[in-house]
Amino acid sequence: MILPGDAPESIAAAVERIRAGGLLGLPTETVYGLAANADDDSAVAQVFKAKGRPADHPLIVHVADASAVAHYASFVPEFAEQLMCAFWPGPLTLILPRRPGVANAAAGGNPTIGLRCPSHPVAQAVLKVLMREAVWGLAAPSANQFGRVSPTTAAHVQGEFGDDLLILDGGACSVGIESTIIDCTRGAPVLLRPGAITPKQVQVVCGLPVLSKDDLETMASPAPKASGTLDSHYAPHATVRLMTAKELQKALTLLGSDAGQPAGRPSIALYCRTPLATVSHQVLCRRMPADASRTAQQLFAVLRDFDAHGVSQIWVETTPESSVWDGVRDRLQRAAG
Ligand code: TXA
Ligand code: MG
């Protein structure tokens, strides 16, 4: 059931559902989440089950503001405080040492906890009411089946989990790809997942260089399992291929022309910035915006739409080198598996 997220009765119904140990489709500025009380292990177990997600892949816990951090984290390094001040509420998740005994299931048994304060007004409204009732946070992975494309509208969430799930409609997500994840448990910030907030922005705020996962390989303990960091993830049903504009044009030319033949269903979808010549009915074309944030905003909806058209292949133009494209490039590379 989809309820309007801006109605007070909807917020009350959502809070009631969470208090009763149930699940909720929650809009955030990045993607929609499948939320449960982070301190209720059996509610969190339902999230893992509904998603088909392995129980040792930890979930992000969403909080109303930084005052809830002390409930979940046993220690907050100074640079993490600076990042919260600069970027919360917003699309940044911080991995911190976990206070023993809290949010066991959400943390997937890890000694750490991922915390994020979302800026979406509907998420904020739900979290604020819950905090007044001593529910400190909502564990919420993206509201999609494990390995699939994340949802950016309420209708996407309903398509994944059906009509029994209570979903608050908060409109289309403004960021469109999942939060940037920074591991703050290793003395210096480590980027685990790229997103709208770039390593450069993180570095400017805390004055420390941002390490990468590759740097971690050479450190003592490797990063824990993180679904968003698996090589194949965010995958549509169709096969995704990344190609330069030149390679795309060559492939389109090879397809040739089917002018004069009856127009059948398209079997290939094309998502590119560079204008390319195509004369085949087989190809469904969609223009990629020239800037990274607009591309991020529409990316998952575009992939879902291509799937809905039943194409068997999605051909995507490689992104520009610039670091502002890191988040989009990462999701496309994983979709290409
Ligand atoms: O934007 C987002 O972050 C969205 C919205 C709903 O907030 N949530 C999201 O959740 O992407 P999920 O569960 O699909 O991705 C969470 C990522 C996973 O890769 C998970 O393994 C990682 O965060 N993560 C969570 N807790 C962690 C921890 N303690 N240590 C390392 N990684 C962690
Ligand atoms: Mg996900």
Molecular structure report:
- This protein has 337 residues and is α/β, with parallel strands linked by helices.
- It folds into 2 domains: 2-218, DHBP synthase (Alpha-Beta Complex); 239-335, Rossmann fold (3-Layer(aba) Sandwich).
- Helices cover 32% and strands 18% of the residues.
- It contains 11 helices and 14 strands.
- It has helices at residues 8-19, 41-51, 69-72, 78-87, 121-132, 154-161, 199-206, 213-217, 245-255, 292-308, 326-336, and strands spanning 2-4, 24-26, 33-37, 60-62, 92-97, 112-116, 138-139, 166-169, 180-183, 190-193, 239-243, 268-272, 283-287, 313-317.
- The strands form 2 sheets. The protein has a 10-stranded mixed β-sheet with strand order 1-8-2-3-7-4-6-5-9-10, with helices on both faces. The chain has a 4-stranded parallel β-sheet with strand order 11-14-12-13.
- A hairpin with a 6-residue loop joins β2 and β3.
- It starts with a strand and ends with a helix.
- The relative contact order is 0.15.
- The model has no long low-confidence stretch (mean pLDDT 93).
- The structure holds threonylcarbamoyladenylate and magnesium ion.
